[in-house]
Write a structure and sequence with these properties.
Length: 746
């Protein structure tokens, strides 16, 4: 194999030494030179401290002139030398089994006493690994072996038919092969039958699904995979941003589901990719970046142990599937090398401010008089003669935060939280689902239910204190001073149960700071390490997937790095999607882009290589909606308009990630209109602590900290997380002092 670079985690590098480069860190040249003189142990499966399920793929290199046949491998007190050998790929590798949960010391020792040791930390296959104490209650699948939902994996075979009437993949019986099996040619030019091995199983208490081209009956080992696999991985994303309290099904298709156009999962399989989905990476059942990342880390480790290391990983998904990619790529850089985001959201935390604004404004306008629909639309940011976008977005997304929302999956009405009748019940909103990340409310703001329970509900990172709703509309003369005053005096906010409140909503601390640190608010400060193709169509509006969000990520990249050259936006006229052919076209383009990066051995930093190695024909573009590129620029605003949000009307930039603004005193001279004394007095009452100054960073606004863990070694919660730090590497050792100089032979 060729074209592998040491800057990507879980990469198959053709060298055991290079495989120590995890979490996006490159191996320094000095380390390479030093390692040539030492024994080095590399855990290829994953970070050595994040192993799960009792298995780990390991490689060892020895100094030049040393013989692998003389190397002795020891796991704790057990001799595991027989599990290692020089494999067909030329590397000395072994698949360790029987790791105990907790720390496992692995040593490699030469006859002269020189060697290396590394501690491999194993976690239960049912989790958690780093996401913290698991959500309860939880409903396992029928037949689960234990309360962690463990069960043996299930293997079945599928195939693509030559019959055009049979779309998708069909069941395949190796004992009775069908006669209509299609052939496929991989991206390496290998022509093989389009037969797919599908494995489904349970990790982290929920399902995973892995598919790959397979030649049934032929051997497959991680160091000697079947040749049709190209060592690339495509991860399929889901939708929404909700919660579910039991096992579910992994996402495994594009938004259109491969109806008229082949699904990108099937296209990728035919090229030689492995394709993976995990239920917990589906935002429709889990809207928690740490838990999504954990499920992917565990599934990727399992794939490596079974099939061999991965060259690079591409994600794809629309709506909640884009959200999961973008905040995971930022909070856990290296899980993805490229992401294809469609009808995209940057995160749930900053998106939340728009949704609560829509809900609050909708509540106000429902009872206010003297407003016309066009004026309402000027306040909500669309400027159109309707309030459809706000209405649909609030109706679609506001229930996601409500603790007693209707249809809480796997939770009965008797179990569900009710402030009056069951205050200790299950709170189904995404804030409480993410309590490990956000932390509980401080005792100083507990409501009656929290005081009675003697524990805080999850804090909220959402705030509207000081927000001047309709400011731009006021200054433009679209609304009157009296309307502006009445709106801001009456709009109110929400309490901890997300019920309307006359008071503005103040974000909790430390939840606000934690939301930035852990990536619930995606600051994009680590997203220069990933290639991005954003697929975008018009929101129309009223489809709740606003176009501005693609440009919010672009603006955050520009702010953080002075460039957005690692992101391209493909637009088209088809609602939300841009172009139904984009899924497969973007996969092909992203593959070419990442292959170019993989071939880059210049030694430059990874973000520089991603930008420099982007092919000349991978640019912003506009299509005709049926697969034909029209221009290498964005579509005109008449095709894909970009509307504002209530916060942008209030003065926030398109970055829209200042969840709690810095405040300045009211200044009568800062407005382009005049107020009566009575109106000014009403504004002073509405804004007793001041109004938003969006020229300053938001309160507690800070970069996302990569690779946080939310649990101690003993499994106790760490609210807000703690950085894992650099991945463990092996430590060399020499012979005991008494043995030195005795002339041990190699």
């Amino acid at each position: 194999m060729s074209g592998h670079r040491p800057g990507w985690p879980f990469a198959y590098l053709g060298s055991a030494l290079a495989a120590v480069a995890l979490a996006g860190a490159c191996v320094p040249a000095s380390a390479v030179a030093s390692a040539k003189r030492k024994v080095v142990i590399s855990v290829l499966s994953d970070r050595a401290d994040l192993i799960s399920g009792g298995d780990a793929l390991v490689a060892v290199t020895v100094p030049r002139g040393s013989r692998y046949s003389k190397l002795r491998m020891k796991l704790r007190r057990r001799n595991v030398t027989r599990e290692f050998a020089v494999r067909r790929n030329g590397q000395y590798e072994g698949l360790l089994t029987g790791l105990r949960v907790g720390k496992n010391l692995l040593t490699a020792t030469l006859p002269n006493g020189h060697g290396a040791r590394i501690t491999i930390t194993d976690h239960p296959i049912g989790g958690p690994v780093f996401s913290g104490p698991q959500i309860e209650p939880w409903t396992c699948q029928p037949g689960a072996l234990d309360k962690q939902c463990d069960a043996p994996p299930r293997i079945q075979y599928l195939y693509e038919s030559t019959n055009p009437a049979l779309t998708g993949l069909q069941p395949y019986d190796p004992k009775d092969p069908p006669s209509d099996v299609a052939m496929t040619t991989t991206d390496a030019g290998l022509k093989v039958p389009f037969i797919v091995r599908e494995e489904t199983g349970f990790e982290d208490r929920d399902r995973y699904r892995i598919e790959v081209l397979d030649q049934p009956g032929k051997p497959w080992q991680p160091w000697a995979p079947q040749p049709q696999w190209n060592h690339k991985l495509l991860i399929m994303g889901g939708f929404d941003c909700i919660t579910a309290f039991g096992v579910s099904t992994p996402p495994f298709s594009d938004p259109l589901g491969g109806t008229a156009i082949p699904d990108s999962s099937q296209v990728a399989l035919g090229l030689g990719f492995a394709v993976l989905g995990t239920a917990l990476d589906d935002s429709e059942v889990d809207c928690n970046p740490a838990l999504q990342a954990e499920s992917l880390v565990m599934a990727k480790e399992h794939l490596v142990d079974e099939f061999g290391p991965i060259s690079y990983t591409i994600g794809t998904g629309c709506s909640g599937g884009s959200l999961s990619q973008q905040w995971v790529a930022n909070a856990y850089p290296g899980i993805y090398q490229g992401i294809i985001v469609q009808c995209s959201f940057p995160d749930a935390g900053s998106t939340g401010q728009q949704i609560i604004d829509y809900e609050a404004l909708g509540n106000y306008f429902a009872n206010a008089s003297g407003w016309n629909v066009a004026q309402e639309a000027e306040v909500d940011g669309t400027g159109l003669a309707d309030f459809a976008n706000a209405t649909v977005s609030a109706a679609a997304f506001y229930p996601f935060v409500e603790p007693n929302r209707t249809g809480c999956t796997d939770i009965s009405a008797a179990q569900e939280y009710n402030a009056q009748t069951n205050p200790g019940g299950v709170r189904c909103g995404i804030d409480d689902w993410d309590i490990n990340l956000l932390g509980p409310q401080p005792k100083s703001v507990w409501d009656a239910q929290e005081k009675a329970l003697d524990r805080g509900f999850a804090g909220s990172p959402i705030d509207n204190v000081g927000v001047q709703y309709g400011l731009a509309a006021l200054n433009a003369g679209e609304i009157t001073p009296q309307q502006f005053v009445d709106l801001n005096a009456s709009v109110g906010g929400f309490n901890i149960d997300w019920q309307p409140s006359a008071r503005r909503m103040a974000a909790d601390e430390p939840a606000l700071a934690n939301a930035y640190r852990d990536g619930i608010i995606n600051e994009a400060n680590n997203m220069n390490q990933v290639a991005i193709i954003d697929l975008r169509g018009p929101n129309d509006p009223g489809l709740a997937h606003d176009t501005y969000r693609s440009f919010a990520v672009r603006a955050r990249l520009d702010r953080d790095f002075g460039t957005h050259a690692n992101q391209v936006i493909w637009e088209g006229p088809v609602s939300l999607l841009g172009d139904p052919y984009y899924d497969n076209q973007a996969l092909e383009a992203m593959d070419r882009w990442l292959a170019a990066v993989a071939r880059d051995h210049s030694g430059r930093a990874l973000p520089q290589e991603i930008i420099s190695d982007k092919l000349a024909n991978i640019t912003d573009q506009c299509s005709n909606g049926t697969g034909t590129k029209l221009t290498s620029t964005l579509c005109p605003s008449s095709v894909v308009p970009v509307y504002s949000t209530p916060r942008m009307v209030a003065g926030e930039a398109i970055t829209t990630d200042q969840n709690k603004c810095a405040l300045v005193p009211l200044n009568r001279g800062s407005y382009k209109v005049g107020f009566t004394n009575a109106q000014w007095a009403a504004l002073q009452k509405a804004f007793p602590t001041g109004v938003c100054d969006y020229s300053k960073p938001g309160v507690s606004q800070q970069p996302t900290v990569p690779w946080l863990t939310y649990q101690t070694p003993a499994g106790k919660v760490i609210y807000g997380g703690r950085a894992l730090g650099a991945p463990p590497v092996s430590v060399p050792f020499g012979p005991p002092a008494r043995d030195r100089g005795r002339g041990h032979r190699r």
